[in-house]
């Protein structure tokens, strides 16, 4: 099992508008958009991870 302090990046989408971007996934499951404070312009967006471990691609 990995270190509980490990976080990773993942592709995610807003379930309201479909905007796609990269998020930081924290060990507790919290998603934080990278390079911006908000993922999209939706008033209350819910993010869904599309793909994990993008750092591990060949």
Topology:
Elements (H helix, E strand, L loop, with lengths): L7 E7 L5 E6 L5 E3 L13 E6 L6
Antiparallel strand pairs: 1-2, 1-4, 2-3
From the structure above, extract its key features:
58 residues, mainly beta
User: Which series of helices and strands comes N to C?
Assistant: EEEE
As a whole number of angstroms, the C-alpha radius of gyration is 12 Å
Low-pLDDT ranges: none
Number of domains: 1
Distance between the termini: 22 Å
Strand arrangement in the largest pleated sheet: 3-2-1-4
Oligomeric organization of the protein chains: single chain
Number of helices: 0
Q: Which strand-content bin applies to the residues?
A: 35-45%
Characterize the biggest β-sheet: 4 strands, antiparallel
User: What global shape is seen?
Assistant: elongated
Summarize model confidence as the mean pLDDT: 81
Count of strand segments = 4
Secondary structure class reads mainly beta
Summary, kept brief:
Helix content is about 0%, strand content about 40%. The chain is mainly β and about 60 residues long.
Structure description:
With about 60 residues, the protein is mainly β. The chain has one domain (about 10-55). The chain is about 0% helix and about 40% strand. It has no helices and 4 strands. The protein has strands spanning about 10-15, 20-25, 30-35, 45-50. Strands 3-2-1-4 form a 4-stranded antiparallel sheet, with no helix packed on it. A hairpin with a 5-residue loop joins strand 1 and strand 2 (about 20-25). The chain is elongated. The two termini are about 20 Å apart.
């Amino acid at each position: 099992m990995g270190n509980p302090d490990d976080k990773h990046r993942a592709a995610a989408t807003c379930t309201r508008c479909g905007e796609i971007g990269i998020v930081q996934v924290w060990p507790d499951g919290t998603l934080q958009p990278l390079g911006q404070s908000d993922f999209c312009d939706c008033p209350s967006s819910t993010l869904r991870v599309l793909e994990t471990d993008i750092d591990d691609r060949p």
